Amino acid sequence: MASVGECDGNPHPVAVAASEREHEGQQFARRAVQGAPARLLSVENLSTAFDTEAGRVTVVDEVSFEIDASETLGLVGESGCGKSVTALSIMGLLPRPAGSIVGGRILFRGEDLGAAEALRLQQVRGNRIAMIFQEPMTALNPVQRIGRQLAEAYTLHAPGTGRNEAKGRALELLDQVGIPAAERRLTEYPHQLSGGMRQRVMIAMALASRPDLLIADEPTTALDVTIQAQILELLRDLQRETGMAILFITHDLGVIAELCSRVVVMYAGRIAEQASAPALFANPRHPYTRGLLRSVPRLEDDPKTVLSTIPGTVPDIHELPTGCRFANRCPHAEDICRRRAPELEETPVPEGQTSPVPEGQTSTHRVACHRWRAVEAV
Fold this sequence. Notes:
This protein is 35% helix and 21% strand. The protein is α/β, with parallel strands linked by helices. It has 14 helices and 14 strands. The strands form 3 sheets. Strands 8-9-10-5-11-12-14-13 form an 8-stranded mixed sheet, with helices on both faces. A 4-stranded antiparallel sheet has the order 4-3-6-7. A two-stranded antiparallel sheet has the order 1-2.
């Protein structure tokens, strides 16, 4: 009788995939020792556009960031800033033909996914890179039982899997994400589960093929704070168990502080600031980041204290300014801000301070602001 790692006497497809990942990981480590960049994912000057009746609009504009193995990177910004489109670009899930990558590269362990054929993307998507979507009720099929959907996610990348093995793997996944009475849940439909349970099912589906990178697109937005905390703790535990990296997309800075080691702040399709999470919270350098932090309620505030807000609105995507896109809302803006778009520049650690960065992480703090020194002095 063939073992779990075999299928009809041959190595099981999932075991083969795991072996390939291990081999690639060894090559990855050797490149790091030899001094070559050792990044799991490297997004370089990514630009994504949509063709509309009013013409082409660029919604992600020269975005660059990196994710190392086992790292959690937070992508934060208000609705419409390009966070989800960045994730869909990485996954190759842009709506076609309207959406397309018009510039830059997406390197996953050195392979450019932006230039990959559709068949290759299918091999990577769900297998090597998985995604949890924002609203599980719309991501799950309402007319299929949970067990069938989990089994499908597993067998898609292991076509030789038998029915009993797929069911066993589905049950194992539900146990792994902490769903009680897991065997009974396999026979239920999505509408029979609570919001928190549906999100756990989505996480289980994403983990089916043991991905190297998990993209979580605002997975806690529709949940109450208690369930939100449970989901965050679950993701931390699963990351420790599997060693996967996480790209966590959110507009909630509290979640960023809880989960992420580094942070990328986006505004109107561009990166405003990029730093380690401790450095960003201790010393934010972009006026937009400071505005976001000031708008968070604090326990020490007096009751009924008026919350701080950022005045104005995000510029229309069809009429973006030539200069800094935050200039119309920025209290520090000057003429240069309206005339010329700022570059994302590396900034030094403040004098007399050490960089508050976790061990093994980069201490680079980048900001796209002409007047960040004046902002910091305030």
